[in-house]
Amino acid sequence: MTYPTVYPTGATVYHPGKCFNGYTVFQAKELGALVVDMNGGEVKLWRGLHGFPNKLLPGGFVLGHTGERNTRYGMQDYRDLIQVDWDGNVVWRFNEYEFIEDPGEEPQWMARVHHDFQREGNPVGYYVPGMDPLVEGGNTLLLGHKNLVCPAISDKNLLDDTVYEVTWDGDIVWEWVCSEWFEAFGFREEARNILSRDPNMRPAAGGLGDWMHLNAMSALGPNRWYDAGDERFHPENILMDGRETNIIFIVSRETGEPVWKVGPDYDHTPEKGLGWIIGQHHAHMIPRGLPGEGNILVYDNGGWAGYGAPNPGSPTGAKNALRDYSRVLEFDPVSLEVVWQQTPQEAGLVHPTDSNRFYSPFISSAQRLPNGNTLITEGSGGRIIEVTANHELVWEYISPYWGTHFRMNMVYRAYRVPYDWIPQVDPPEERPIEPLDVTTFRVPGAAPPGPRSESSVEGTMPYQSSSALCVVSDADEEA
């Protein structure tokens, strides 16, 4: 394996004067929705509340799900979206998107919600000064699923993505279906070929093509581009990203048409300057009132995604774009110039030798904070960090909660909110945490660093072989 058997969990780094201090919420694997403070203290657990993701609302409310559809018949289909108060009482629920009659299961209504949702009042689902999500009476946008066949894509059954809006009373007032706009996404002939043969088939329900796999959906909100007259960036338009296609795009709320996009290919201008965005998550426009407002922020996972020409890493052309490290990108949506980034280099790693140490090939997210810092969820390793605009690591938390089915401590997405969003508890004491010196730290019972027998040969360059200490001469070096 490539990771240590033992490493610290909980809060491991904290510089209070450099952070946007508050509470952080995330899904603690099978336990439920968990809120921690800056020192890693566990403030609140809503046991059994699933988070895909969990989102806090002002007043100590939280949004989440009660459970997932049987995976024999669906994939990442959650039954409902609910709002829960501090004491665990359900104060709002929506599930009536589709009536499901799976063999051997009790017939039931389901929301089929997955990956994202947004409550009216806030476009992106995280804290923005002056844009509090409504706690009562607001509409909600949900990212959902629908099974269908679209001959333009494939003759196979598809697990298609939808976006729909519901009122507080549960009425569906708007819906958008992804496959209806397939021709607008600009797939090349090689991509259309492999999509037809294998639209990312999943085993559920005898085979479903998860062809786009949308994993983020948010409104744009007020922004400078629309103020300047660019209709593509109407505040009600919706930005999404397709993990399997490497596409980030905006659709018109009025017509449903994709009006802006990057991807699916990044080997030509203007996308070429961005580099290949692969398997990305949580693409959104930074809202007005936050540093970088109007730019696109995205966790560019790397890993494997896309459809196109076969290559040595992808003999069929499925998942044909490959990269073994991640990036967080902030870019101008008009010029496509990178404004800020967190890559292995900014994280202090040697590129490319050590780049895979900043790497989460799936899930993950990035949130812009009011002080200009960025909260980054490196999801596959359960690591949540806060970095400054100058790339200083000022907070780090490692989830100590491991799953029983998948032996991972992964965190899908984490969010930071101010202390006053949870008035039920007093703000905690903030205590600095200095990074451990891993060169001297030892587990109990291990021998500490200390005197050792050493010798060296002056004027030579020793290296260790499997059998002896060898000496490299000047003549050897020249050869």
State the CATH architecture.
6 Propeller
Q: Calculate the terminal CA-CA distance, rounded to whole Å.
A: 36 Å
Rg for CA atoms: 24 Å
For the record, the CATH class is Mainly Beta
Q: The CATH topology is what?
A: Neuraminidase
Major sheet strand order: 1-30-29-28-27
Largest sheet entry = 5 strands, antiparallel
The CATH H-level homologous superfamily: TolB, C-terminal domain
- In DSSP terms, counting alpha (H) and pi (I) runs of 4 or more, how many helices? 3
Q: How much helicity do the residues have?
A: under 10%
What is the count of structural domains?
1
- The coarse silhouette is globular
Computed structural class: mainly beta
Mean pLDDT across every amino acid position: 94
Low-confidence runs (pLDDT<50, min 5 residues)? 461-479
